[in-house]
């Protein structure tokens, strides 16, 4: 229970269905001990803050279920915060929400729940789990509300994990979830949604990374145009991501975007829109929930809010690559690419080497 309305309604639905429910909040980040968190000008529009823990506790009390706070701060730092920082220092763009789901919610928490004798872990994710009677396998399917669907973040789920997880709000719209919350009189029925990274105040990730990194570990260098011209200097590749336009501080007749980052030389390349298009990429840590082999019918999302596009999966030994049917824009190393067959999540992985 993050303190938000989705996980709160998930708990309410399970209570209504007759489950023996235990409410749990994962304490991931100590806002009181992190210096930026104490700054009155800092803005944490997030989940899992101290106020959110209080909201979750009130909801649990309202539903008449026991409530506990589990301390996972060390695990969160290692698997999410350190990963996030290291990836940016290498000129890659990480996705901390995927890391949190993979290593915290559906790894550490699921393991602890089983040791405590629980049959399932339930969350407020907008996704669905269907059982395929023909193949005897579980399917991860998009949430009913296309605007809220979170199946993208769950691509690393396994058959074993899917058998032990429930997504009670996956077949509901956000509007329906709020109506249910109001029916139960939950304190967070009208609570606004968290939109930012939960451990970064004001969404200033470059400052967050710089404060936790020694000066000598920051990779500095040139900003060069794709045609080779020197445009400027920069103070660290951690400040940039592919497709970025703002913050380059370069005057140009035409808009310039970050097109690629060379972590070996510290060079950030920039260029006009036409330089952003790519033909495909290779995967790192590729994973399939259900093995469908190679198919031109796959669609891929190369970031959470991107539109799915047709692609061909290619396997050559241990190397898994993906070729777009039509070139795509701003393919970003470190981001997650997720494969779909219709509404089903087939699998995915981290974008590694990008093909021109």
TrEMBL record:
It catalyses: S-sulfanyl-L-cysteinyl-[protein] + uridine(34) in tRNA + AH2 + ATP = 2-thiouridine(34) in tRNA + L-cysteinyl-[protein] + A + AMP + diphosphate + H(+). Keywords: ATP-binding, Cytoplasm, Disulfide bond, Nucleotide-binding, RNA-binding, Transferase, tRNA processing, tRNA-binding. The record marks 125, 335 as: Interaction with tRNA. Residues 148-150, 303-304 are annotated as: Interaction with tRNA. Residues 207-271 form the tRNA-specific 2-thiouridylase MnmA-like central domain. It is found in: Cytoplasm. One of its GO terms (cellular component) is cytoplasm. Belongs to the MnmA/TRMU family. Catalyzes the 2-thiolation of uridine at the wobble position (U34) of tRNA, leading to the formation of s(2)U34. This is tRNA-specific 2-thiouridylase MnmA. The gene is mnmA.
């Amino acid at each position: 229970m993050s303190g938000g309305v989705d996980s709160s309604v998930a708990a309410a639905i399970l209570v209504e269905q007759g489950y023996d429910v235990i409410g749990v909040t994962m304490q991931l980040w100590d806002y009181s001990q992190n210096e930026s968190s104490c700054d009155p000008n800092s803005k944490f529009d997030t989940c899992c803050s101290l106020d959110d823990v209080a909201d979750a506790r009130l909801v649990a009390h309202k539903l008449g279920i026991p409530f506990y706070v589990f301390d996972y701060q060390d695990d969160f730092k290692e698997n999410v915060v350190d990963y996030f920082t290291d990836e940016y220092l290498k000129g890659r763009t990480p996705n901390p929400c995927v890391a949190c789901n993979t290593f915290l919610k559906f790894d550490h928490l699921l393991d602890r729940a089983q040791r405590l004798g629980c049959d399932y872990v339930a969350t407020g994710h907008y996704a669905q789990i269907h059982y395929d009677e023909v193949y005897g396998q579980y399917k991860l399917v998009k949430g009913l509300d296309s605007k809220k669907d979170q199946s993208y973040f769950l691509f690393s789920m396994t058959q074993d994990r899917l058998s032990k997880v429930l997504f009670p709000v996956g077949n509901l719209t956000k509007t329906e979830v709020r109506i249910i919350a109001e029916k139960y009189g939950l304190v967070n029925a009208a609570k606004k949604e968290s939109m930012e990274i939960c451990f970064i105040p004001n969404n200033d990730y470059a400052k967050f990374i710089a404060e936790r990194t020694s000066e000598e570990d920051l990779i500095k260098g040139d900003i060069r145009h794709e045609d080779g011209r020197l445009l400027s200097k920069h103070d660290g590749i951690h400040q940039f991501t592919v497709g970025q336009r703002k913050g380059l501080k370069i005057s140009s007749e035409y808009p310039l975007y970050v097109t690629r980052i060379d972590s070996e030389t510290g060079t950030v390349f920039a260029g006009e829109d036409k330089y952003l298009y790519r033909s495909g990429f290779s995967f790192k840590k590729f994973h399939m929930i259900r093995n469908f082999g190679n198919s031109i019918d796959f669609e891929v999302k190369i970031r959470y809010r991107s539109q799915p596009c047709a692609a061909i999966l290619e396997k050559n030994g241990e190397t898994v690559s993906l070729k777009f049917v039509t070139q795509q824009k701003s393919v970003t190393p470190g981001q997650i690419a997720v494969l779909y067959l219709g509404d089903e999540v087939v699998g995915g992985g981290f974008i590694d080497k990008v093909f021109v």
